[in-house]
Amino acid sequence: MERIERLKAFLATSPNDSFVKHALALEYIKLNDDIKAKELFEEILQNDANYIGSYYHLAKLLERSNDTQAALAIYEKGMQKALELGDRHAYGELRGAFEELSDI
Question: pLDDT tens for residues 11-58?
């Protein structure tokens, strides 16, 4: 909880910091608070669509919630954005997760 409080304090001074929001979302996942984590990942991607790592983690969260179609859609959006940004590594990770989930 101490880590979460520190991250919240950072966000209070920099409310649009995608890195801090992403780190906070990951902490919520550790606590099995997928609702708060999902809200943060969605907020990140709404405000900073180039924050590639959040696509992967949001889709994984959706997978765990058995929302396969939504997870696949997020993987696809992330792959598209990774290609636009020239991030081949992120594209490969997103594509691998997409293919595993969709049994391609």
Answer: 999 999 999 999 999 999 999 999 999 999 999 999 999 999 999 999
- Going through the chain in order, the beta strands assigned E by DSSP cover none
Instruction: State how far the alpha carbon of 45 is from the alpha carbons of 1, 54, 70, 82, 98, in Å.
Output: 25, 7, 14, 13, 18
Contacts 24+ apart (CB under 8 A), 13-17: 16/47, 16/48
Q: Residue 33 and residue 30: Cα distance in Å, rounded?
A: 8
Show the tokens assigned to 55: 């696509």
**CA within 13 Å, CB half, 11:** 16
Using an 8 Å Cβ cutoff, are 85 and 77 in contact?
A: no
* Domain covering 2-102 in this structure, CATH number: 1.25.40.10
Tell me how far apart the alpha carbons of residues 78 and 83 are, in angstroms, rounded to a whole number.
9
Quote the tokens at residue 57: 């983690």
**pTM for this one?**
0.93
